[in-house]
Amino acid sequence: MNKKVTAALPLRDIQLDDRYWNRYTKLIPDVVIPYQWRVLNDRIPDVPPSYCIRNLRIAAGEEQGERQGTVFLDTDVAKWLEAVAYSLSWRPDSVLEKTADEVISLIGRAQCDDGYLNTYYTLVEPDRRWQNLTAGHELYCAGHFMEAAAAYFETTGKSELLDIVCRLGDLLCQTFGPESGQNHGYPGHPEVELALVKLYRATGHERYMELARYFVNTRGKSPNYFIDELAWPDYRNIYPEFQPYDPAYSQSHMPVRQQETVEGHAVRAVYLYCAMADIAGIDADGELLERCKILWSNMVDKRMYITGGIGSSGFLERFTADYDLPNDTCYAETCASIGLAQFGLRMSRLTRDASYMDVVERALYNTVRAGISLEGDRYFYVNPLEVWPDICMEHTSRAHVKPVRQKWFDVACCPTNIARTFTSFGSYIYSAGEDELFVNLFVQNTATIQMNDKQVKINLKTDYPRSGNISLVVEGGGAEFALYIRIPAFAENFCVCIDGEKDIGTAENGYYRIYRQWNNEQIGVSFLIRPRIVYSNPLVRANVGKVALIRGPEVYCFEEADNRDDLAAIYLDPNTELMEIWDDSLLGGTMCICCQGYRLSPWSTDKAFDIVQSYQKQPVSLTAIPYGSWNNRSPGEMIVWVHSTI
Amino acid sequence: MNKKVTAALPLRDIQLDDRYWNRYTKLIPDVVIPYQWRVLNDRIPDVPPSYCIRNLRIAAGEEQGERQGTVFLDTDVAKWLEAVAYSLSWRPDSVLEKTADEVISLIGRAQCDDGYLNTYYTLVEPDRRWQNLTAGHELYCAGHFMEAAAAYFETTGKSELLDIVCRLGDLLCQTFGPESGQNHGYPGHPEVELALVKLYRATGHERYMELARYFVNTRGKSPNYFIDELAWPDYRNIYPEFQPYDPAYSQSHMPVRQQETVEGHAVRAVYLYCAMADIAGIDADGELLERCKILWSNMVDKRMYITGGIGSSGFLERFTADYDLPNDTCYAETCASIGLAQFGLRMSRLTRDASYMDVVERALYNTVRAGISLEGDRYFYVNPLEVWPDICMEHTSRAHVKPVRQKWFDVACCPTNIARTFTSFGSYIYSAGEDELFVNLFVQNTATIQMNDKQVKINLKTDYPRSGNISLVVEGGGAEFALYIRIPAFAENFCVCIDGEKDIGTAENGYYRIYRQWNNEQIGVSFLIRPRIVYSNPLVRANVGKVALIRGPEVYCFEEADNRDDLAAIYLDPNTELMEIWDDSLLGGTMCICCQGYRLSPWSTDKAFDIVQSYQKQPVSLTAIPYGSWNNRSPGEMIVWVHSTI
Predict the structure, then answer these.
(1) Chain A residues with beta carbon closer than 8 angstroms to that of B384
(2) ipTM metric
(3) Which of A399, A428, A457 is the last residue of a domain?
(4) Cβ(A385)–Cβ(A640) under 8 Å?
(5) In terms of domains, do B487 and B610 share one?
(6) Which of A316, A575, B207, B314 has the fewest CB atoms found within 10 Å of its own CB?
(7) Which pLDDT tens digit goes with each residue over B372-385?
(8) Is A100 part of any domain?
(9) Is the pTM of this model over 0.90?
(10) Hey, are the CB atoms on B313 and A603 less than 8 Å from each other?
(11) Interval B186-237: pLDDT, tens
């Protein structure tokens, strides 16, 4: 913890123009934000009402009626506002900004005089504030409002929403803490911790940072706050299915500084870890950083899917045990992979270790991208690695797995989370320190950076991940600093040229480092991206003897549209030749992987098992497409891990 | 439907003395019935109170307190009484009979004046009788009392319980039916239908038969009774997790005579099908018989595990879709396999087709036997085909799968169901018609049968399934009839000798038929029983490329105790030599299957997936034991279907 934590560049200083990501960076402002605005206002005829804006109007006293929807519904508005804020930073839109200003004004009118802000408790249970930290989600909602406010303030400089959340934050600081007379609880769903850090950064008020520390350090101390709360005689149980309550569900089974494994609800977990990483950085808290590393390793080595999905159990959307990674019954929530990316990005900035960005890239290119349709108006909440639509049946153990993306959800955390992630996508590309600039993701863009009082302009050109060819022009104006270029774990033959001459530089923690005075150098980076076979640790019961295909950062899958159904009966020879074929007309232009494989021959009986039949393999031509693009054609089967002939 | 339906022999006329089954036939009266009696009376310190007898006492006004436990708790007492009745028929026990008489007397005192009998509704919701057919289980409870009464009357000739249930049955006949003023509903959990048939057979009263027909034929008609009931403004929801209610859950999604596939809760389904088969036989209703055959085929060909387990979804304990047979998340409830055996036995008696008994035998020797420990005091409710104890975690999608047998359950339908099944085990062996006697199961016994006014004595000797050698001595006293000996589907080299001479008889529907005058012939039956590889239809996604081992009626499994852990990484060459080794000291004496196989070598990294590692197979010696005997040593992993080297 010698060096300061590196930081993102302001989004306004990065202009993205990337062949692979343009779809999303255009889609979000053009389609997704307007679509979601209509959903929030209950204006899409075949989507059930979300009640989001309506609830705020009722809380503001401007509409009559009953407050409806889940207790944490306000967060959908908050995350939409946050997405708008990021979007406005690189694509100004006065009409959209006016709409956002009006929503912010509405939120202000829905706020109570003492700063309290939450439509559910204000309207439905006004006497029960802070009496259900286990499941009431008041602090979770507060956190999302704070994140939106910090983003909107940074983009627009307007302080109305920031003032609103500061009043809310001040109420939290009065209400929660170690003093007698204060509430000694902490959030049932972590989120406000990382938001309080953002609020601290936006305002400089140490009290918000102090509350974030308090929440993180108090969590899991004995006696368990939630268990005590649940025993209160007048406790009102919102989610009976959580009973009997398992403190690990909310990572409160022990103090966070003692936890060795990632446990419980995956989104809760990664949001908590983000705050732990933030605090570790700000406080130079080596113990907390070490804990973050331990939890990270357990998660990504033993409890993460190849797609960057986390959360193996459909019930309670949670982590289970090491190597328990079922493909067809998992949760792998979109929001959890977003939180994983946020945590990994923080860790990369704390440690200057590129391996974190390998995981961040894995999550963004695969599960997060799979969470939204290519048209932007359909979403996955759950991201399985194997889908057999016939058995994704309501009223069964697999009811949580949907074989097609949905227009919206009763619990709709994912769609607005995707929107805020893709509108802030630029923030994942660079990390800047005092005399360091890290290039984390290979996304075509131009960026300007103040580096040692000099303005540096970076022009990054690439068709990644179609190829591993990246050109960086650094107009440094004489600034002297180290440029770090991430060497992806999958990269073969990684090499760097400076102004056409091969450079013999050094690699540091997975980054290629070039320290020099920068004037107008052109850096050429190239590495081989080709289809590769990935094997699964035999300890992963669900994948014994199976292989998956990757190409660069992308995990591939086989879809029924290309390979007919019954994909589970496919076998691949790990030594088979994998051909890559660019198809400009497919899925908006995509690289396919084609190969020869086998399929078990159909039986001549319809019996499920038999003593007389046996297994015959017949050759078959197979085509795989990127997992992030799956389910954009006719619904059907999909599979990532297929059997290998071993 | 030309011939009359064949019938069971009275249990009292069969004396079992079978090396394989003696354990259970001794265990049930010696251990299980006394153990369960103590549980019913809340007398086992480390088993939470069942409240069963206590509830009856409270209903009888003989104890103060609050009625506790599930709504259908009375059935545990009823099934225990039914087990006692069967046990007394072949093992008289005056002390046990006195206890049973006292329980019966208590039941009588708990009965309302109008015949109503149900401790839950009598004590907790007296004003809500018959207002929750969806989930209240009143008719289900009534059915189990009727089954117990019919059994106790047949064994003891005592009519007290029969009188009680006739008063109850008469109340049902008044209450339910097509007339105006009658309730037009039917049971949310089928069971009373088959029980009413038993009551009809015990009493000869046609009204009970008529009500059984009414319930079966009304089920699933439009508009759906349960959907209507759930919409009643004062409906009290006992099981919120069933909402929104899926009529297929209770097989009420369409009239039973239109159903093509087995749907919904597996126990509900097979109990319903039993009644359909009963009615088909009594009424010579060919349409209903045809429907039973269609449902049977769908179930056993496409929705049944090799172990005779049914119910693929843990949530709602239900059927899902064809070929959806996950090994580690299934339900495969013990009660469901008992109901499957009951249905198959009825079908075999209706059709004289031995293939039904292949399935009955599969269920009894495997899942039902697995449902109880060799010591008799631990039970499985859920019977998975693959267990990894680490992930059988509470608060996850796999919480229903227990890695070890339990002492009792909050919903404890299975333990007493096993008790009544094994005490009535003799009834599965023979089926008798006018001039026909069918030998269905190869269990050592002596039996006496009235055949054309002559007393026939059968002495069946065998060590089956250790071998396929069966000796039958038929002391027929000159009676002329056809003896049918089942030819198991797995039997190789099936041959029959009569008095030492090879017989060239005929096979009919899977039975070997010998028609003659019987005096004192000795029939020698022999067929080869050897370990065999079973393949899985490639349509079963969970088992692609996997094989299982069987030997005769027994499915085998690999346990951690013999093969160390990580059993999922095992591979078998389908051509490997399978050796059978009798181990007298293991699990009370058992045949093991030993073979050479492979195991994927452990990786040198703990990462869940990797591009550098690959798959190496190392040879390993493997030992399999019968699935019915699993989990009787130290807890650990178990697997039925293992990968094959193909």
Answers:
(1) none
(2) 0.95
(3) A428
(4) yes
(5) no
(6) A575
(7) 999 999 999 999 99
(8) yes
(9) yes
(10) no
(11) 999 999 999 999 999 999 999 999 999 999 999 999 999 999 999 999 999 8
